[in-house]
Design goal:
3 domains; Elongation Factor Tu (Ef-tu), domain 3; disordered N terminus; eight-stranded antiparallel β-sheet; 18% helix; Rossmann fold; alpha+beta
């Protein structure tokens, strides 16, 4: 694969690119904290902007009356975003450095676009939370940090931006760092890092800042390139949701039966004793087939086909697990729900529920409490859940689900709710 970027010397072969480790990260922050400018600067200074895209941004900058290139326009792709100077929808960008490849989700900062932020951050390994050095920690900072914690994003990078507007003062950075750390002690986040930057000027984004010699840490790009994500996936609890049953119709493979899907947790090996849910029948793994060859083992997030020693009635939505490591099985599920629909959720309402490869119907049994994401206080009198609100809800499903807590496994601990009339996704849930 070759990228014709503004630096023609940057060239990745197809194999080298495919072999690179991938990091997904999202950005979040209050309005005008500089999220889009930061991503634009990161791409620009990493020489990862395509030439035609750069020309388009230059023309748009001139049209807006800017003397210098407006790097925020690299990610603000919608016309409404460019006209208002805000981010509305999630913008995804892809780039690579010699060490790693990245997928960026630039998410909105407005309160009314909380659902967009949840969507963009749901698959992230890391979250960049921007804080305007002039304003310090705000309610939106608390909101975005709590949602990142709720989504179990394992790494938070707190970017104290616009340091150029506070004369690069170390005491301003340290005060913000202390203030955020006090709040973060209430969050469930494994790894929090801080970096003082100026996205507009490029300080500590890709290159070290000469204006902040007091900062001894790495630049933002260095941190992103060196975050260890290998242990973020669950390799302890084997989970294999069956997506498709493979039965070739040719004479050559008439006796072949395999179960295709993506490993959601743990490690599966040939010869392992496993149990199939919901039937509870036990058997042995006869073989694991990859794209081109038989494999010795499979682990997240590999897509494979598992063959079993015994003929068992298995279909899409069933789950293969280890005999001595079974997930929870229940029709009552406690979930932290972020509501995405203009039509409020109320008790007794019914929805279509998707969990891994399983599709069931469900009813809202109880809305236990809502969460004030700015203070983390519980609101006990909530009888309905409105758009962008977050609450703990009990759902009753028409048939049992096999699940882990979201903290234990983001794949088997998450679900989405769908309006049966419109087929729109109306809520996302993290199993408690």
């Amino acid at each position: 694969m070759k990228q014709k970027t503004m630096d023609n010397n940057q060239d990745f072969s197809s194999k080298a690119y495919l072999d690179m480790e991938l990091l997904r990260f999202s950005t979040a922050g209050s309005v005008d904290d500089g999220k889009s400018t930061l991503i634009g600067r990161l791409l620009y200074d990493s020489k990862s902007i395509f030439e035609d895209q750069l020309e388009s941004v230059k023309r748009a900058s001139i049209k807006k009356g800017n003397e210098q290139i407006d790097l925020a326009l690299v990610t603000d792709g919608l016309r409404a975003e460019r006209e208002q100077g805000i981010t509305i929808d999630v913008a995804y960008r892809y780039f690579a450095t010699p060490k790693r490849k990245f997928i960026i989700a630039d998410t909105p900062g407005h309160v009314q676009y909380t659902r967009n932020m949840v969507t963009g951050a749901s698959t992230a390994n890391a979250a960049l939370i921007l804080i305007d050095a002039r304003n310090g920690v705000t309610e939106q900072t608390y909101r975005h940090s709590y949602i990142s914690s709720l989504l179990q994003i394992p790494h938070l990078i707190i970017c104290v931006n616009k340091m150029d507007l506070v004369d690069y003062k170390e005491e301003v950075y340290e005060e913000i760092k202390e203030q955020f750390s006090a709040f973060a002690s209430k969050l469930d986040v494994k790894d929090i890092r801080f970096v003082p930057i100026s996205a507009l000027k490029g300080d500590n984004v890709v290159d070290h800042s000469k204006n902040m010699p007091w900062y001894g840490g790495g630049t933002l790009r260095y941190i992103l390139e060196n975050i260890h994500v290998g242990s973020d996936l669950n390799h302890l609890d084997p989970r294999f949701p069956v997506q498709y049953v493979i039965r070739p119709q040719s004479d050559e493979f008439h006796d072949y039966r395999g179960y295709a899907g993506r490993v959601a947790g743990g490690v599966f090996r040939k010869g392992d004793r496993v149990v199939v849910l919901p039937s509870g029948f036990a058997t042995t793994i006869e073989a694991i087939d990859g794209y081109k060859e038989e494999l010795k083992e499979a682990y997240p997030p590999m897509s494979v086909t598992i063959r079993l020693a015994d003929d068992i009635d298995i279909s899409r939505g069933d789950m293969i697990v280890k005999e001595n490591n079974v997930p929870e099985i229940s029709q009552d599920v406690d979930v932290m729900v972020c509501w995405m629909s203009e039509k409020a959720m109320q008790t007794r309402m019914k929805y279509h529920l998707k969990h891994t490869t399983n599709d069931v119907k469900c009813m809202v049994k109880e809305i236990k409490y809502k969460v004030d994401v700015n203070t983390l206080n519980r609101i006990e009198d909530g009888n309905e859940l409105k758009m962008n609100e977050i609450a703990r809800v009990t759902l009753r499903t028409t048939k049992p689900l096999y699940f882990d807590s979201y903290r234990q496994n983001r794949q088997t601990g998450s679900l989405i709710l769908i309006d049966e009339a419109t087929n729109n996704t109306v809520g996302v849930g993290m199993i408690v």
